[in-house]
Amino acid sequence: MKHADVIIIGSGIAALQLANKLAKNINVMILTKKDLRTGNSYMAQGGVAAAMAPGDDFYLHYLDTLEAGAHHNNAEAVLEMTKSAPKLIKDLWEGGCTFDEDSNGSLLLGMEGAHSRNRIIHSGGDATGKHMVDHLLSKFDGNISVKPSVFVYELLLNKEKNTCIGVKAKHPDGRNDVYLAPHIVVATGGCGQLYSFTSNAETATGDGMALAYRAGAMLADMEFVQFHPTLLYLEGKTRGLISEAVRGEGAILVTAEGKRIMDGVHPLKDLAPRHIVSQTIYDYLRKGTQIYLDITPVSDFSSRFPTISELCRKHGIDLKEGLIPVVPGSHFIMGGIKTDLHGRTNINGLYAIGEAACTGIHGANRLASNSLLEGMFVGGKLADWINQQLGGKVDTYYTAQNAKVFHDMELPDADVLKKAMMDRAGIVRTREALVHQKDWLAKYGLEEWLEASLDHLGTDEIDRVFMYITAWLITEAAFQRTESRGGHYREDFPHEDPYNWMKRQIIHQRKTVKDGKHEYNQIAFAT
Ligand code: SIN
């Protein structure tokens, strides 16, 4: 049994920002499933949005965020974040984080979809995440310890006090361990790997959401999954992200015959909000037409986008020909563990930050380059809050939960699950397909998997359990929401329905109903 003051599960940008901003007398332990440089934050290409250009204003950034989010956002939170963004960038820059500058030493500001101004701060061209993660790691002090390849599979609760007091984790040698702390932070990232087409790192399997749901935390907005329009596509597989910044520099989406597919679809054309671009490409793909990103309008492509150029070269794409075959794929989930702006959940001592959390900032669709920003912003705010909690005591009492041992339980194979999610709960959804998916998932025994002890399973199996639970959360929420909004598109309800759905959130919370017989999962609505 090991103790710390703060345990952070995961090691993306939000986690690293939090760790650095906690007071130096606080003992911080980071438990990460793989290692520090394998997650989505490290792979982030585009950049960080902040209103820093002459003529730009945080209020314009705020309005763009609400517009992209289909006005489902927590507007107050968006206002605070967009206002804080320039200072967050300045602090990093002055602290030695390198961002791309012009010859006068001013920041170069790129453009991405649904932004009304150039405001994307980037580093290394298209290696922003890598530079920021490396910078934050270089600032680590002796109070922070990192434990790689430690897979957290259960949150430990004192149920009488509704308090999270620790975690159970697996080591690579199969050993299980208990880690206790008065502050437990879920920063495990998203769940892009639930879909067969994804830009996400292998580790993005929805762990934090499933962990929190099993423990009784509230989740919100799980139906809102963002599909990035342009993933490199070859031989039936996606091979990595082609940043939206490429379209920001002038690239256009075309058919093989050169027809511009975004003309007449949206006034912002190729830089329309992501769901509109993704749905348009998807329509062509369904009719058997491959779509390409024509990069010939981009000057000096290889030096502006070195990471993407290398990715293309590795896969035999000749950049001189100027056409990159693309498809949309899952990129980000706007929903997650429901928190306030300090990352606090409905369980004492349990917090969530980064993509695992739902602060409401992103609404129904995240504005490009707002995710690293949100991670830094909320990570910093949670640090401020924990720093004020003097002398948190480690509780060692926890109530046994998730403790039942079942035999002969099955799980869907990961590839089968991913394909089923892509086909039935993906870019275009219908009641029929969602019912099919719900029935199919139900066959594997959700109730049992929510209660089952995972102590005896290997990490690959636990990954599949978490993927299965998170797939159910998304499917159920997508089924419930009978309108289209942001990243959630229902072909049978193709329009926004402000009368029934404006600002309404679908909340998942596992409730035990003590009627003496059974327990069930309860879905509630909040406005
Ligand atoms: C991109 O570079 O297109 C992705 C950036 C983001 O999702 O914010």
From TrEMBL:
InterPro entries: FAD-dep_OxRdtase_2_FAD-bd, FAD/NAD-bd_sf, Fum_R/Succ_DH_flav-like_C_sf, Fum_Rdtase/Succ_DH_flav-like_C, NadB, Succ_DH/fumarate_Rdtase_cat_sf. Pathway: Cofactor biosynthesis; NAD(+) biosynthesis; iminoaspartate from L-aspartate (oxidase route): step 1/1. It catalyses: L-aspartate + O2 = iminosuccinate + H2O2. Gene3D superfamilies: FAD/NAD(P)-binding domain (3.50.50.60), Fumarate reductase/succinate dehydrogenase flavoprotein-like, C-terminal domain (1.20.58.100), Succinate dehydrogenase/fumarate reductase flavoprotein, catalytic domain (3.90.700.10). It is found in: Cytoplasm. One of its GO terms (biological process) is 'de novo' NAD+ biosynthetic process from L-aspartate. One of its GO terms (molecular function) is steroid dehydrogenase activity, acting on the CH-CH group of donors. Its cofactor is FAD. GO terms for cellular component: cytoplasm. Residues 5-372 form the FAD-dependent oxidoreductase 2 FAD-binding domain. Keywords: FAD, Flavoprotein, Oxidoreductase, Pyridine nucleotide biosynthesis. Its EC number is 1.4.3.16. Residues 417-525 form the Fumarate reductase/succinate dehydrogenase flavoprotein-like C-terminal domain. It comes from the Bacteria. PANTHER family: L-ASPARTATE OXIDASE, L-ASPARTATE OXIDASE, CHLOROPLASTIC. Belongs to the FAD-dependent oxidoreductase 2 family. NadB subfamily. Catalyzes the oxidation of L-aspartate to iminoaspartate. This is L-aspartate oxidase. It comes from Mesobacillus subterraneus. The gene is nadB.
